[in-house]
Amino acid sequence: TTTALQTFLLAIVLYPGIQACAHVEIDQVMRHDKMPCPDDRVSLPYLDAILCKVLRWYPLAPLGIPHATSNDDVYGGYFIPKGSNSYNLRALSWDEDMYPNASCFNPSHHLTVDGKLRDPFVHHCAFGHGR
């Protein structure tokens, strides 16, 4: 939680336009006499996109949580021996082929054309890489 909050604060300081857009969304959805609750999350897709970007931009565990391969494998022409357990989550989350301009903090990458949140678990390395 601490790392995610620090990354969020860094992004807000470096990209004040992001903060302004988030503030506008909050003002449009929330009333001043009501505290936010989990039910409001559906109405705040830009804030969800910011969270997705925070988790991708600077992963909480840059070297990931180790998993071991159960068998020898070949992937993309690379031999991966049984028992291998290293991968670099930071490198995967900054892959320019999957995340164009990966160093830029742009939450709109996680939104559809009509402003809805894309499925946050599809192609998002912060939530794992599958089997």
Automatic annotation (TrEMBL):
Domain of life, per the record?
Eukaryota
| InterPro entries, A to Z | Cyt_P450, Cyt_P450_E_grp-I, Cyt_P450_sf, Cytochrome_P450_fung
Membrane topology category: Single-pass membrane protein
- Manganese as a keyword of this entry, yes or no, is no
Location relative to the cell: Membrane
Question: Can you list the GO cellular component terms from the UniProt entry?
Answer: membrane
Q: Which family does it belong to?
A: Belongs to the cytochrome P450 family.
- This one is known as Cytochrome P450
Species? Suillus subaureus
